[in-house]
Amino acid sequence: MTKVRKNFPKDFLWGGATAASQVEGAYNVDGKGLSTSDMVPLKSRTHSNDNMKIEVTSKQLEEYLKDDSTEYFPKRSGVDFYHRYKEDIALFAEMGFKVYRLSIAWPRIFPNGDDESPNEAGLMFYDKIFDELEKYGIEPLVTITHYEMPINLVQKYNGFESRKAIDDYLRFAEVILERYKGRVKYWVPFNELNMMLVSPFTCAGVISDRSLEKNPMQIKYQASHHQLLASALATKLCRKIIPDAKIGCMIARLETYAATSKPEDQLQALHDDQLNVFYPEVLVRGEYPKYMYRYFEENGVSIKMEPEDEKILKENTADFVAISYYMTYIASEGGDGELASGNLVGTQKNPHLKMTEWDWPIDAIGLRITLNRLYDRFRVPLFVVENGLGAIDKVEEDGSVHDPYRIDYLREHIEQMKEAITDGVDLIGYTTWGCIDLISCGTSEMSKRYGFIYVDQDDHGNGTLNRIRKDSFYWYKKVIASNGEDLE
Ligand code: BG6
Description:
Layout: E1 13-17, H1 20-23, H2 58-66, H3 81-95, E2 99-103, H4 106-109, H5 120-135, E3 139-145, H6 151-157, H7 164-180, E4 186-190, H8 200-204, H9 216-241, E5 246-247, E6 249-252, E7 255-258, H10 263-285, H11 290-298, H12 309-315, E8 321-324, E9 328-331, E10 339-340, E11 347-348, H13 364-378, E12 382-386, H14 404-422, E13 427-433, E14 453-455, E15 467-469, H15 471-481
Parallel strand pairs: 1-2, 1-13, 2-3, 3-4, 4-5, 6-8, 7-9, 8-12, 12-13
Antiparallel strand pairs: 10-11, 14-15
The structure holds 6-O-phosphono-beta-D-glucopyranose (BG6).
């Protein structure tokens, strides 16, 4: 029998993750077009789970398009990675990163999404990023698009509600696959496909009130079908252009516990879980799982498919499953109970768990559970491409930033990943979320910090943008140098 592995594999990919729209800024520089992320206003710090959703109506979009404020739309200025990438990548290298997960801003390459030719200035920006990563031997992991549909495609055909979005997405994917072949081996076609169900605007440029469809579920699942096809077709292109590439699929993993041992609660947890793993079910197994047919029928959903769709899904399956993991969820038959907040979607409070300052439950053991469940189900390598703690950090008078709470959070999660590896899970990497402080996706706040590197900027865009190494920076450097053995 093979020996039980008790440590991280020697080629384990340690690193950090960001998204273009949350770090780059320069939203209208060098020909970049507007994206959905440029249209997400700042929300004040909130503990209400309803406020986690990002919804934009047609009327709001019209207003936002006329407003050129960066203070009210902080993602437009990000943390100026666009101009400071050299300094930031040098800091990642100093921590010893093996991998850096980044996304390519779609409207930097195709400003309107349907332009005849790509924007060379945008392509050159990522050439320079990959040069810098190569200089330090850091492997890039590229999310082809992370919540950034060009606004023109939202206005023109309501984003991925339309099948036309597949062609425009694939033109973008083909251009970047061709341009960066030989430089990028790891790819993920879309960030968190399942977030369609809670934030279709962010996830896919879909504005519900622009649709002729009345059933919101119909709109969301039709748009999901288009993204699933686009993922499979991007996988096909990737295999043709970069035969030795690894291309995965990604969800926000919403591991769900039943509130009690009552069978009805257990059943609810099973159903919630099925809706979450539905996305990798399609992309890894290459077909819609049967349980979705019943769910669609009972919810008035009828997916419009073309005759070739089943074949496309079947023939172009993903190499690995990537997840973001922040917390666990609770399900019960009636769905009532005291509420906690969460990543775009809230849940019931779990009395056994501590909470973050944003009221997200902290559950490191849940990560071990979820890695086991996913590996049992899919038997393909897993990659944790997001995990981290959003917290308020304080700069001391001597300029240092002490963040023991972040170190505790990450240590506990890394310990559980190691347990999962010992359980037999094939885990290939870990990129912590927001390795440098960035603009929050859900609330557009700057004060919700995830990084090892502090960025001097407040919620309203004031600050020097200077970078400061936090205590966690030195800690993570040790973790990487010891391949996950030294967690003290
Ligand atoms: C993930 C997203 O769901 O959660 C990231 O992929 C996001 O873009 C992260 O930043 C954390 O959420 P938030 O709202 O705290 O930024």
